[in-house]
Structure formats: C-alpha cells, structure tokens
Design a protein that fits this description.
about 950 residues; alpha/beta; 8-stranded mixed beta sheet; 7-stranded mixed beta sheet; about 35% helix; about 20% strand
Length: about 950
C-alpha cells in the first residue's frame, strides 16, 4: 500500500475529468478574448451599430474589431475590410450582413481560424427553399474547420458574468445564476425588460435562433458544466435534434433543474411556430413524454418558468404530492386547495396525532382539517407552533404558509419567527404573504431566508405541484428497475422467425401483415396470444373450431384489410359448426360488398379466408398497446384503455422506447384505467408485474424490428383473479395489427429512435486466463444490486487507484451514485461489465467495469476501469480496454485519454501494451495515457 494512501477530496473522477483538459468549443462564444463584428455600421438604429456599441460599452475583457470594407473606422474604432485583414486571432465573429453574403463570410472565418460565430441575420429556412439552400452552403463551409455557429435569425448571446453583450438588445441582462435559452429573439427582449424590473439575474442569456449548428443539447451541456449556472430555463418552439436534447437534458437535470415552456400546444400555435422557425413542431403529447423521460419540467407560462427556477434553487424537491396548508383565513386556503388539486397535487391527510397536538395550541374553532385554519387573530407564536407540528407530520410532503393582514396580524414578526423553518429536511416550505405594501417587509425577510414568497396562494400551490412533478420525473430516472423476463442483451429466442415473416411480406410487396403473422411476432417476444387457426374454406374453419372447442370467434383473414370490424369481418360467440359456416359466408359477402371496388397496389385479393379463435370470456379490462411514428422522435409507444371505443375514451399514455420496468409502470400511471387495474369495487388487482414485463417486451420488439412502421395490440385482455376463473387471471392479446414501411424505403432511411437502445452489438463471450467463461456486455440500470456486491469485493488500494482518493463503501454504493453509473445514456458514454454466472446456482456476479465517457463538445473521450481484486491478473483489464477502444472507433471518437496514478504500474503497462502513449504530468502523482484512433 503506498504511503500517500489517504483521503484527499470528495470529488469522484468518474464524473469530474480534469477541467483544464476539457475546454468546450462553445467557450469561444461565451468567453471570447477577441470579437469581430462583421457588418459593423455607423448607421443609427442599425443592427451592426447596436451590436458594436453593446460590445464596447459593456467591457468583457477582450478586444473588439469592426469589419466593414467601406469604412476605415466605426464608432471611432479602426475597421478592417475583411476578417482576414485583422492582425490578431479571432475567437468569435458576430455576423450581421444580408443572408446571401453569409456563406462567404463563414468561409472567410474558417480560413482565419475563427472558433465561434453568431449569425444574427435572418432570411434562411424560415424564408423557404432559397434560405434552406443558403443554410446548406453555410454548413458546407463550416465543416471545413471547427467553427461552432449560433443562429441564424437570432438576437445574439449575453454572458453577464463576464460582461459580454453580443446582441442587438437595448439593455444588458443582470448577472445571476439562471441560464436562459430562447428560440424567439423578440421574447428575449421582453424577458430582458421583465428581468430588470423583477431583479432576476442570468449566467447566460442566449437567443438560439433556428439552430443550424449549435442546438439545445450543446447549450445544455455547456451550462451544465458552467459553475455559475444553477438552473436552466428554456423557451422552445421546436426541439431540433431530439436525441441530442434528451441525452444532454437527462445528464444535466440530475444536478441542475431544467424548466421549459414549449410553444405550440394547440394546432394553430404549432402551425405558427413552424412558420416562425421553419421546423416541424411534432406531437405535443410525445414532447411531454420526452420531457418526463429526461427529468425536464414543463410549465405553461413565463412567470411559472422563473418561479420554478427560483424555488428549485432555494428549496428541496418534495418526496410526494401531499401539501399541508397553514392559513389565518379560510378563503385563501380554499383557493390554494383548488389550484393544488387541479394541477395534480393532493391535500395531506392530517393524522389523529397531529390533530391532537394542534388542539393543544390552537383555539377551539380551528378547522380540524387541512387546510389548517388557525383563525384571523393568529399571532406569530401561533403560526410557529402550528408550523412546527405540521412540519413533523410524516403524511405531508411540503408546507404552504398563507398570511392575510388582519387586525391581530404582524406580517413582519411572523416572517421573522419562520426563519428557523426555512430549510426542513426533505420538505419544501413556501409562503404567500397577501397584502402588497403592508406585507412587503415580511416578504423581503422570507426571501432572504430562501423561503419563496408569492402574492397569491393559488400561485404557491401550483408551484408546489410543479415541484412534485419535477421530483416524479427525476424519480423515473433514479428508481432501479427489475431485470426483464426477456433479456435484450442475450437475444430473443425466435428473432429469426420474426425477421423471416417481415422479409417475406416485404418481398411480396406487402405493407400489412395478417393477424396471424402479427400474433406470431408477438409470441416470439413472449407476449401471450390467443390460439389462432387459419382456414381458407368453410370446412377448414369448422375443423379449426372443433379442434379449439366451442364457442369460437371467426375473423377475416386478409393481407390488405387491417381494421376487420369496419368491414364486418368479425363474428363472435359461435356455438356450433353451422354458426361457423354462416359466419364464414357472411364475412366473405361483407368483404365483397364493402371493398370490392378498392384496388390495392399489389392487386392482392381482399378475402383469403378466416381465422378461428376460441371465444375468450371478456371478464377483464380491454387495453391497447401500440407504436407509431412521430416526425421528430421516431417510434413512440402508447398504452391505455382499448377495445372498439378506444378513439372515444382517449385514455392513453405515451412514452419513448426502450422501456424498463420502472418506465413501464410510469407509463401506466398516466392513464385513468391504471386505478382500475390495481383493483376497484371488490375486484383484485391484475398482475401488474406481468403487465410491466409485457410492456418492456413490446418495447424491445419496437426497438429491434425497425421495418415495422405501426403496431398495436387491441385489445389486450387483462383479467384479475376471481372465482369465475378459479383465481387464474392473466394477460392475452386477442387481436394484433402490424404495418410495415413502404418498399421504397431503404434501411438508411428508417426512422431513428430518440433514445439509443441497449447496444447488443457490444455483448460478447470471453474466457479468462484460468479458463473461466464470462460475458462482457454494456451495463444496464438493472445492474445496481450487482454493482453493490462488486464494490464489496474491492480493496482500499483498488479504490484508491481508481478514484485517486479513499472513498468509503457506504458512499460508493449509495443509490443516487450507482444510478448515475448504471442508468447511462449510451450515446454519451459506454460502460462495459465483465459478468460471470455460476453454472450450478445461476448466481450472477460482476467482476470488472470499464467506462468510456465522451468529453462534451469534442470527439475525445476519457476511459477508466476497475477490476475486482480476486480476479486481477486474469487478462480482464487488457480485454476491457481493447473493447473500449473498439467502441471508440465505432462511435467516431478520435482521441482517448486516461489519468493514472504514478503508483498504478499495472494500468500503465496495460495502456502501453495497447498503443497508448504514457507520460508524466505537471502533477508528479499522476501519469497521462493518450491514444489517437
């Protein structure tokens, strides 16, 4: 053990890579040392003049160079005819020239080595085809170098902490801790005016424009790394690169609140937003699902946007939706209650013990319920005594204190008395001091103590509901799921069967699979289906029915008709052979009558016979599970109330694939049918765990079978145990429908998933030096329990070599920490585990972990590795690094590095053997290993 082995810091190098080595390319835009204003002008009121004036009148520690080929100076500063003529290296170019000139300007910037550009000019994709062509020219030029571009059609960028004002706004934003990103330049100016009045400060103030290059993901990553930014608020009209946004937001939202107001909820507003940005708006419901998936909070008003940024910075998130309201007046308490319930919160139920305690200190006629009305003559002491009791109630997740100025009220002294309760562990406290000037001093006092105040109680209640929504969204990221019944990493048993069915249909020119084919696909993924027999004649139909047993259902068998009920293609509850024959003839006649004149492109017959199925007793709930395409997010999943009236009830939830069991449960919770599924009116709950697993299996199907354009199971019958079924409930797919992509679509054109699925291509078998077989595979959220066991096997030396300091086991295995390690975004990083399964007991064990993490905004990555002590010297380290290098090549990483303690000779030898260049650093205790791929 080296003598230097001692605790030095609490920083975990799994996430804190040396700052000096990871300069984000956007740093040139937010903290430039030199700025060129291309299009600088003397003309009063012009954009070029305003930008130049803002830059020179708000010192940011850098030099400003006007560029104007027609003038020798602008605003008294020497001007240059082009950026190439400027004698110094330029970090940032702010471009305010007509749109047709911008491609050539960007070309000059690339030639001059400029690192960042802000294109203020309008007239690009929002103007139509000509503008789109100009954008492509700009991108072509930009890709010749490493320049990053914000805009076009934007207000610009402010960095109030440094003083940079590269905008044509009329004022500079106040310095603060909120990062503000907006797709609307006009809204930026309105927010700027409002923020000055409300004393709201910003760490960054960005008009993002139409996101030709730099998008939401880039900026979220940048502000996530910025120590001055405590929260990020966004005005969004279109999401752009959905995968980039989700990846960045999910990482950053764990440590900094991200609050979004998304314009375009209604069809008319979406159309207006599309014409404004020239981008697709996408489905609003799908966007909500995406926000939930990555921990982003969506609000509906600008005031809510900044209210939430403030409250999430001052108070802890609630652990549940239950709010206790303490008030000295009944009316405001009722208003707060209405707002709370309408926005998804709940009133906390006051326990008998709390009521008994309150009885001892409150007047006889207090409300004896929640809201806790302590009456109009409440003095500061009564407030604090009641608050202390309510704060200890385990049935409450948060507190709202309402004060209205009455004869006996002392707003200032009451606020003073609340100071000790400003930070209640695990519970937020909010205040509504009503009364304007009469309560102003008390409001100031509360805000200084980090207790947010609101002039109206309904606003405070709505803020609490948003806080709970934020907690709920993040909990979906934090909760550890259960290993699915079908393991995507180990493969689907009948995947080849599915691929053959789809391939045969495509070769035949079909886009619609038959019900029988659709059910075979479901069965391959472990989804229970009703027995189905295909019959091409009446006699075959009768034989099928007799084999299955009466009563039966007879349905149309067709390769062209997908909605069988619409054409009279379903006959139910058939009791004998004669009924089956009549049903066969009826369906054939219905199809001939209703679709005879409809010609399909493949000229296939509409009637190919029937399918016969047992008549399942509908003593349960009809559900629908499906998937369709969203123009921005690709395949999306749907779950809800099914049956023939699915369009009428509109009870559905949407989620993005892939799912795990936690996310599947979250999806169910967003439907009304969920309460019934858990048991209602004497009925038992259905098997919720089985339904979770079925949803996970269905999401695997959608993720893997990319040629499927649409798929739904309707109905999926969910039956609770009951005396009628001898206590045997269950799940069974009664009908299924699959639509494939058109034949002209190529594999490269297939829609991509918004969230990268489990990378099965990195799953492989390997044998250790001692002959032990192991599986090397990407980590997954379900591995958290195995990771706890893994950390229990590590020596102090192994921990020290990995983290550069001692870290207690209790800290290494905290749920919050392991969540971030196991529940990763495979677009952002890749962690491979070495797993061994005992052949006798089936017990699984993780022997080692290797991680490759991309550095934000670059094509570089850092790797780290940890091997259990008892399995060291078995070749595991070398094999893991080999595989991480291959991952880097596959992911277009150009440069990989690692920091290694000087005492860690084993890791240094592994790196040297695999082609890394290992050298000393300025820190004598640390070596640096680097390789170019």
């Amino acid at each position: 053990m080296p003598q230097s082995l001692k605790p030095t810091t609490n920083v975990d190098r799994a996430y804190d890579i040396l700052q000096a080595e990871k300069v984000n390319p956007l740093h040139a835009i937010f903290a430039p040392q030199s700025v060129a204003v291309i299009g600088a002008s003397e003309k009063a009121g012009s954009v070029g003049r305003t930008i130049l004036w803002n830059l020179i009148s708000s010192p940011f520690g850098g030099t400003v160079f006007p560029v104007n080929p027609k003038r020798h100076s602008v605003l008294g500063i020497k001007a240059y005819p082009s950026i190439a003529e400027i004698p110094e290296q330029i970090d940032l170019a702010v471009i305010a020239t007509p749109a047709p000139t911008v491609p050539s300007v960007i070309a000059e910037c690339v030639d001059a080595g400029v690192k960042g550009a802000i294109i203020i000019s309008a007239g690009f994709k929002e103007a139509g085809a000509e503008g789109i062509a100009l954008e492509q020219e700009i991108l072509t030029q930009a890709r010749r170098g490493r320049i990053r571009i914000i805009g076009p059609n934007c207000l610009g960028v402010m960095s109030p902490q440094s003083g940079l004002n590269a905008t044509f706004a009329s004022a500079m934003a106040r310095s603060g801790n909120v990062g503000f990103l907006s797709q609307s330049g006009a809204l930026c100016t309105a927010i700027l005016d409002w923020s000055v009045r409300e004393n709201v400060g910003f760490s960054a103030f960005v008009s993002i424009g139409s996101m030709l290059d730099v998008g939401w993901g880039d900026l979220i990553y940048y502000l996530g790394d910025d120590p001055q930014t405590k929260s990020i608020v966004i005005y969004m009209e279109s999401i752009g690169d959905a995968r980039s946004f989700i990846s960045a937001a999910r990482e950053v939202a764990l440590t900094k609140p991200i609050i979004v107001i998304k314009a375009g909820r209604t069809a008319a507003a979406a159309k207006a937003a599309a014409s404004h940005t020239g981008a697709l708006a996408g489905s609003d419901a799908v966007l909500d699902a995406a926000f939930r998936r990555c921990g982003v909070l969506r609000v509906n008003s600008i005031s809510d946007l900044f209210d939430m940024a403030e409250v999430l910075a001052k108070q802890p998130r609630p652990q549940g939706p239950r709010l206790t309201i303490l008030t000295n007046a009944g009316g405001p308490g009722v208003l707060a209650t209405d707002a709370l319930i309408e926005t998804g919160g709940e009133l906390a139920a006051i326990s008998p013990e709390v009521i008994e305690s309150l009885n001892k200190i409150l007047p006889q006629h207090w409300s004896h319920n929640n809201p806790i009305d302590i009456l109009g003559d409440a003095d500061p002491q009564r407030y604090t005594q009641a608050l202390e009791i309510a704060a200890k109630d385990p049935n409450s997740d948060g507190l709202l204190v309402i004060l209205t100025p009455q004869a006996m009220t002392d707003p200032t002294q009451t606020a003073e008395q609340l100071k000790p309760y400003a930070q209640i562990p695990g519970k937020p406290i909010l205040a509504s001091w009503m009364g304007g000037a009469d309560v102003a001093e008390g409001e100031i006092m509360l805000n200084r103590q980090r207790i947010p105040t609101y002039p109206y109680p309904d606003t405070a209640a709505r803020v609490f509901s948003y806080m709970w929504q934020s907690s709920y969204n993040l909990r979906g990221i934090y909760e550890t799921p259960v290993l699915p019944a079908i393991d995507a990493g180990n493969g689907i048993p009948y995947r080849n069967l599915v691929e053959n069915i789809i391939s045969s249909a495509r070769q035949a020119g079909r886009t619609i699979l038959t019900e029988y084919e659709s059910k075979q696909i479901l069965a391959a993924y472990g989804i229970p289906i009703v027995a189905t027999c295909v019959a091409a004649t009446e006699d075959e139909a009768v034989r099928c029915a007799e084999n299955l047993g009466y009563p039966v259902v007879v349905k149309l068998y067709s390769q062209t008709i997908t909605h069988k009920t619409d054409v009279g293609g379903v006959q139910l509850n058939l009791q004998d052979a004669d009924a089956v024959r009549r049903a066969y003839r009826t369906i054939e006649a219905n199809v001939c009558e209703k679709v005879a004149n409809i010609v399909n492109s493949q000229q296939l017959p509409h009637f190919l016979g029937v399918t016969v199925q047992p008549m399942v007793k509908m003593d349960g709930y009809e559900l629908i599970i499906g998937s369709s395409l969203d123009p921005q997010f690709g395949p999306v999943l749907l779950f809800g109330t099914g049956g023939q009236l699915v369009e009428v009830f509109q009870d559905r939830a949407i989620a993005l694939p892939p799912l795990n069991t936690t996310l599947a449960r979250r999806m169910m919770e967003h439907t009304k049918i969920y309460k019934a599924l858990k048991g209602v009116r004497g009925r038992q709950s259905i098997d919720m765990d089985a339904l979770e697993q079925l949803l996970v299996a269905f999401s695997h199907l959608v993720v893997e079978q990319r040629w499927i354009k649409e798929i739904d199971i309707n109905p999926l019958l969910a039956t609770p145990p009951s005396p009628h079924n001898q206590g045997n409930g269950g799940l069974i797919a009664l009908d299924a429908r699959v639509v494939l992509h058109e034949s002209e679509i190529t594999e490269a054109q297939l829609p991509k998933l918004a969230i990268r699925p489990y990378p099965t291509q990195y799953v492989g078998e390997w044998t250790m030096k001692d002959g032990t077989p192991v599986t090397i595979r990407p980590i997954r959220p379900e591995d958290e329990p195995l990771m706890v066991k893994f950390h229990e096997t590590l020596s102090e030396e192994s921990v020290y070599f990995r983290y550069f300091h001692m870290m207690k086991l209790s800290h290494r295995i905290t749920h919050e920490r392991l969540t971030r390690i196991c529940f990763i975004d495979y677009d952002r990083e890749m962690a491979l585990v070495v797993e061994h399964q005992d052949a006798q007991t089936g017990t699984r064990q993780i022997l080692a972990v290797g991680r490759l993490s991309k550095l934000h905004g670059t094509n570089a990555a850092e790797f780290a590795m940890l091997v259990s002590d008892r399995y060291q010297c078995q070749g595991i380290g070398t094999e893991l690094v080999k595989r991480l290098l291959q991952v880097g090549r596959d992911e277009q990483i150009t440069h990989i590095r690692a920091d290694i303690l000087a005492d860690n000779y084993g890791m240094q030898r592994v790196c040297e053997k695999l082609g890394f260049h290992v050298e000393a650093t300025s820190d004598t205790t640390v070596m640096k290993a680097e390789i170019t791929l």
